[in-house]
Design a protein that fits this description.
The chain is mainly alpha-helical. The chain has helices spanning about 20-25, 45-60, 70-85, 90-105, 115-125, 155-170, 180-190, and strands at about 5, 15, 130-135, 140-145. It comes from Salinivibrio proteolyticus.
């Protein structure tokens, strides 16, 4: 059993979440519970981070999907390189776009799910908190670093929050809010911090 508690004035300990409370409620009054105590990072910052992620996720509308930006970039760069060998760049780019659109049409039957877990991992990796791994097929992939309490202290988590705010601002929220500071205020209002 794992349990998170918050120390209150006077020395009392209170369950941090409803799940923690449910675990405590199963014990009889006067029961003695024993465990190894360790101090975790600030749970308010953890909740604030997830409020930021949720705000970005709510505003995010997946687009494209059938053709990845990397695929589009590769084909267009190839068309530009061909144009250097004597083709008209605008004609080659038009052919490249026609090819990509036809390919997208063939892939259109693929259902794409808007996944919070995939989104969260993408934000963490884009914020610079990742490790690089090589897959068996030779593909190199960025894998998001774990943000669990055990793997990140308050200082590093604060850096993650700031970098994630920038990522979510640049990719999603810049068209819905005026400034990053306005986004941070919205997150604080959602949490009742303001």
């Amino acid at each position: 059993m794992q349990l998170s508690l918050v120390k209150l004035p006077g020395g009392a300990l209170m369950p941090l979440t409803d799940d923690d409370k449910a675990l405590i409620d199963k014990k009889r009054v006067g029961s003695v519970l024993e465990g190894i105590i360790k101090e975790n990072r600030n749970p308010r910052l953890h909740r604030k981070y997830f409020a930021l992620l949720n705000l970005g996720f709510d505003y995010w509308t997946p687009s494209g999907g059938a053709i990845s930006p990397q695929e589009r970039n590769l084909v267009c760069r190839f068309a530009r390189e061909l144009s250097k060998l004597g083709g008209a760049e605008n004609v080659l780019l038009s052919l490249a776009n026609d090819y990509l659109n036809a390919l997208a049409g063939k892939r259109a039957n693929i259902e794409v799910e808007k996944s919070f877990t995939a989104y969260r991992k993408w934000v963490v990796a884009e914020a610079g908190f990742y490790k690089t791994v090589t897959l068996p097929n030779g593909t190199v992939k960025r894998e998001a670093k774990s943000i669990s309490f055990a793997n990140m202290d308050d200082r590093e988590f604060d850096e993650l929050y700031t970098a994630s705010l920038t990522v979510i601002w640049n990719h999603i929220l810049h068209s819905h809010f005026t400034t990053e500071a306005e986004v941070d205020r919205a997150v604080n209002i959602l949490l009742g911090f303001a």
